[in-house]
Amino acid sequence: MDALPATDARPKIPAAFQGEAVTWVHHWTDRLFSFRCTRSGGFRFTAGQFAMIGLMAENKPLVRAYSMVSAPWEEELEFLSVKVQDGPLTSRLQHIKPGDTVLIGRKATGTLLIENLLPGRTLWLLSTGTGIAPFMSLIREPEVYDRFERVVLAHTVREEKELAYRDLISRELPAHEFLGDEVRSKLLYYPSLTRDPFPTQGRITTLIESGRVFADLGLPPLSPEADRVMLCGSEAMNADVSAMLEARGFAEGSNHEPGSYVVEKAFVTK
Ligand code: A2P
Hints:
Blueprint: H1 6-9, E1 17-29, E2 32-37, E3 50-57, E4 60-67, E5 77-82, H2 90-93, E6 101-105, E7 122-128, H3 133-138, H4 142-147, E8 150-157, H5 166-172, H6 180-186, E9 187-193, H7 204-209, H8 212-217, E10 227-233, H9 235-247, E11 261-265
Parallel strand pairs: 7-8, 7-10, 8-9, 10-11
Antiparallel strand pairs: 1-2, 1-6, 2-5, 3-4, 3-6
Adenosine-2'-5'-diphosphate is lined by residues 128-129, 156-158, 194-195, 203-205, 234, 236-237, 240.
């Protein structure tokens, strides 16, 4: 019997997804990696949004929600992922190489949008772990700097090597051809570690409660009049910070009504 042509052996990608080619993979740690892929002309998104991303597995799409790390104006798409050895998707996704095909859902969505926030002076982007992903897109969105006088990006992880994008934020962006001026004058990066010694140690919740973050950055304590907050972390972090904000008079915004803060889970945990 004749062998089937190779194209017929390939699983058919459902219409809700676009197959894109992996162009770059970077492993930060044995638990964390980033990858880039090509971006079809039709895929549009706003900074802060997520889409369903994954692989074909046993002839079916195996996908999870991933926030876009890349800015909307960038040519390629970038994502940040955990690696879980028995996780249905990430146990496979962690092995992708340039040239492999990944699935990108055609529709982007999410609540971490600047239009879901009322006007304010300082934008606080508070993240843990892979929750930094949507904020990497937002800090490269020029409109963010038009809307706010200051942008604070706080990222809490356990160990230093989990501070993904630290170099990009602290070295590359301030020198960026188009964004450099805004980044240098408005963006404050505030990394903290919870399980390793570091100049800034502790959970962001503790650093807010103690007032340490405000003293370090030379900013007034959070107020619903002047500050706007976006949260993206674990369920526990989102719940704890939301409760702190509500107690200070902040009101959650949504795609229907803007507020003084918005929340999204850092999705992929498996
Ligand atoms: P900790 O080490 O004290 O648990 P994880 O790796 O488990 O996703 O956590 C990422 C980071 O988020 C860790 O530094 C962790 O601190 C921190 N974290 C976990 N839960 C909360 C919470 N409820 N509020 C603030 N930070 C949290």
